[in-house]
Amino acid sequence: MDTATIQSPVGSVAQALRLKAKHESQAFTPVLMAGATGGLIEGVCVQPLEFIKTRLQLKQGQPAGMRQVLSEAVREGGVYQLYRGALPELMGMIPRSTGALASLESTKRYLARVAPDPVTGKLQASHAYAAGAVSGVCESLGFAPFQVIKVRMVAKEHLNRYASSWDCARQLVAAEGLRGLFIGLGPTLWRVVTWNTLYYGTMHNIQAEVFDKSPIANPVLSAARKMATGVAVGMTATIFNAPFDVIKSRFQSQHRGPNQKYHYTLPSIAMVLREEGVRALYKGFLPKALLLGVGQTIGYMVFSEALGFYSDLLAPKQPGAAAKSSSSAASAQQ
C-alpha cells in the first residue's frame, strides 16, 4: 500500500485542526482587544468615585458623607489626590475587563453552541446568568492584586507609608510574600460573582427581549436607553454585593498577622453587623452604585462597539475582494 495513501487522511485531519485553531484564535483576538479597550476607558472615567467609595468603606465609627471625604482628599493633595492609587487601578482594569468580558463572551458563545434554547436556537436565559458567574471568577483572579495595592494607597492609615504604587507592591511582597497580593480574595469572589451574575445575565435578557425586539432608530436615543437601563440594573445588583465589597476593603487594608481582625468573609460580615450595625455594610453605597452602574455600563457599551470595530479590522480579506480592489485601483490609474 502506498505510504502517501496512508498519510493523506492523517495530514488532512492535522491541516483541518490547524485551520480550526487559527480561525478560533482570529475570532478570539478582537474579544481580548475590545475587553482591554473597555476596561481602560471605564477606569479613567470612574477613578474619583472609586477613591471616594474606598475611603468611605474604610471609615469605622461615625458615618461620613461623600462631601466630607471629597473635602479631605482635596486638602490632602488637591484634585489630583482623587487619582491616588489610580495606576494600579488602571493597570488592573485591563486584565480585569479583558478577563471578565472575554470569558463572558466566550462562555455565552460556548453555551449557545452546545445547549441552545430549543425554541430560538440562541443562548438560554438562565445560561446568560451562568456566563456572568464565570466572568466573575475570571475577573476576581485577574484583578485582586491590583485592588490590594489600590486599597493600601487610598487608606488614610497608610497615607505616608508608600512612596508610589510600585513601592507599595514591593513592601507588600517583602513583608507578606506573594500571598499578600491576594489578600481578601474570598470576599472579592463573593462580591464580583454576585454582581456579574445579576448584571450581565439581566442585561443580556433585556437586550434579547426588549432592545432587539423594539429597536430605536436614533443612535443617540438608543445609546441613552441602554445607558439608563444599565445604570438601573447595576445599581440594583449593587444592593446584593455591597456588604462583600465593604468586607473586601477591610480585609485588604489590614496587615496579616496574629492581630488581624478579619479572617473569613461571612463571619466578618456577622462581626460588622454586631459591632457597627447594618449601615456599616453599606458604607460608600452611593459612589459604589454609581461606580458600578455607570462605569460597568460604559465599559460594556465600549466593549460591544469595540468588538464590532476590531472584528471588522482584523477580519481576513477575501481573495475576490482583494482582486476586485486591485482591479479598481488599476482602472483608476489608467
From TrEMBL:
Compartment(s): Mitochondrion inner membrane
One family name in Pfam for this protein: Mito_carr
Keyword rRNA-binding in record: no
CC per GO annotation: mitochondrial inner membrane
Keyword Transport: yes
Keywords for the protein's UniProt record, in alphabetical order: Membrane, Mitochondrion, Mitochondrion inner membrane, Repeat, Transmembrane, Transmembrane helix, Transport
Taxonomic superkingdom: Eukaryota
Membrane topology: Multi-pass membrane protein
Solcar-type repeats, residues: 26-110, 123-209, 221-309
PANTHER family assigned: MITOCHONDRIAL 2-OXODICARBOXYLATE CARRIER
Assigned protein family: Belongs to the mitochondrial carrier (TC 2.A.29) family.
Name of the protein this chain belongs to: Uncharacterized protein
Phylogenetic placement of the source organism: Eukaryota, Viridiplantae, Chlorophyta, core chlorophytes, Chlorophyceae
